[in-house]
Amino acid sequence: MSGRGEPGAEPRRGLARRAYGLLLRPEASVVVVSVALVLYFEIANANFVSAANLQTLTQFVAAPVIIACGEIMLLICREIDLSVGQVFALAPFLMENINDAGIPEPLAILAALAVCALIGLVIGLITIGLRVPSFITTLGMLFLITGLTLTISRGYPANTAGGPVLTGIMGEWAYSEILWALAIVAIMHTVLRHTRWGLHTIAIGGNIVAAAEAGVAINRIKIGNFVLTSTLGGFTGLLEAFRVGSIDPLAGGSNIMFLGVASGVIGGTAIAGGAGTIVGGLVGGIMLGVMQDGFTLQGINAFTFDIIIGAAILIAMVANIHLARLRGGGAS
Amino acid sequence: MTDTATAGGEAIRGENLVKAFGHVTALAGVSIRVNRGETLGILGDNGAGKSTLIKILTGYHQPDAGQVYVDGRSVRLDSVDEARALGIECVYQDLALVNAISVYHNMFLNRELLRGGPLRLLNHKEMRRRAAQALAEIGVDIPSVEVEVGTLSGGQRQAIAVARAVYSDARILLLDEPLAAMGAREARLIIGLIDRLKARGDIAIVMIAHNYAQTLEICDRIMLMQHGEVTFESAAATTSAEQLLDIVRREYRAARAG
Question: Which of A193, A199, A209 is the best substitution to test chain B (most B C-beta atoms within 10 A)?
Answer without folding.
Answer: A199
